[in-house]
Amino acid sequence: MCQLSKCVCVCVCVCVAAQYACTLLGSTLHRGEAASELRRTVSQLEAHMSLTRKLLRLGNSVEALEAAKRSIHLSDSVLRLCLTIGHLNRAMYFACDNVLWAGKTGLISKLDQNKWSQRSFRYYLFALILNLTRDVYELHLLMESEARYRATKAPPSPSTTPTADHLSSTSSPALRGAVAPPVLWAWLRRQLHLVVTVLHSNPPLLLDLLKNSCDIFIPLDRLAIYPTGPGFVGACGLASSVLSILTLLHPWLKLKP
After folding, report:
1. Comparing C-alpha atoms, which of 177, 181, 183 is closest to residue 160?
2. Does the pLDDT at position 143 exceed 90?
3. pTM for the complete prediction?
């Protein structure tokens, strides 16, 4: 990434962070019954940050299409599908965002901004679902690899914990019911420990998973699929923006490909 492009990306992330900080602040002021003039000022600042963000993103559709062209050559079929279709949805989201910017600035008159906003958030939601699918898939692969490594490293030892086969062959349903919960909890603890170990040793995957998890609440709320309120949306958007800035300042934290 060239220095100019990196600076633009950082500016976009700062604008997004400021926009969602205003959303969070506006929600807090509304609950606290602050002066209407202050709430109106915060709302206007949020609108200005949104327009600035849209202006700085005018060329992002082309970048997303280029990213889709690169990802279509990946050898892993799941990653190829998730990344390619995800980038295409991002390209459509940015295109709709550009149309919205033109409508808000008056370049396109009589634009149905609500329809285009809903359309852009649908593309955004599809892209985030695919991003999260990719994150879960990568996590699954790393967990399998870590489990195989542990299996080869640790010598086999006799276990006093009843196995699933033993449970299924037990004739008494009461005994099966008494033994199954400890076995299940032990398995869940092992899986949780495995997840924590994998994410701790792979900060890029952890950050990408956190960022996408925060982002997905934004279109879910705007599309009224899972309304959470402006305060929660503002907090999620602000957290996601901070994580994005972090990955831009430290490129090794960006998940690849």
Report:
1. 183
2. yes
3. 0.86
